[in-house]
Hints:
73% of the residues lie in helices and 0% in strands. The protein has helices at 2-28, 36-43, 47-53, 57-75, 87-90, 92-101, 103-110, 117-137, 146-166, 173-185, 188-191. Helix 1 packs across helix 2 (36-43), helix 2 packs across helix 3 (47-53) and helix 4 (57-75) runs parallel beside helix 8 (117-137). The longest helix is centred in the first third of the chain and has 27 residues, at 2-28. Residues 35-54 bind DNA.
Amino acid sequence: MGTGIKTDRRILRTREAINRAFLELFGEKELEQITINDIAERANVNRGTVYLHYTDKYDLLNRCIEDHLGKMFLSCNMTRTPDGDVGLISEMKPVFLYFEQNFLFFSAMLANQRTTIFRERLLEIVSANVIRKLEMEKSVPEGMDKQLIAHFMASAFVGTVEWWIQNRMPHTPEEMAQQVRSLFEGNTMYRGHQ
């Protein structure tokens, strides 16, 4: 049993090294310019080791994105809270703390226009979260399209995160959480009409 645990840890450490190397390279140059050899060299592993874990650099990019978004939403409890609220809007602080703790990943993904895959996935997830909240609270203002509201709110959130990351986090996660939450709560489209 002890050997299995050691092997698992070794595999995890190798994957982490590959991911970190890829993200560092991704922050330095275009995806097309990054080779598996570059990644292997930076991660201090064999080229074959990279292929053991990932099909190619596009698979690595997609798995990196899905893994981080999954971890972010799990760690931030992006589900309904005990009072029935949806976590993303009611609990902003854990979201911004996660962004801060994983700055390398988010700055690589949001620093420039190298890829839109990450931004699109984040928009999709945030938008779905907003739609769930609107449906739970039955708070879509008369004559408004909930898809439009959700896209508007998600775009505002993702744009704000981009600004914060690109400016090297000029406010603490706590300050960001408080201000973004105030902006969301102050939005009549989001609150709906009683």
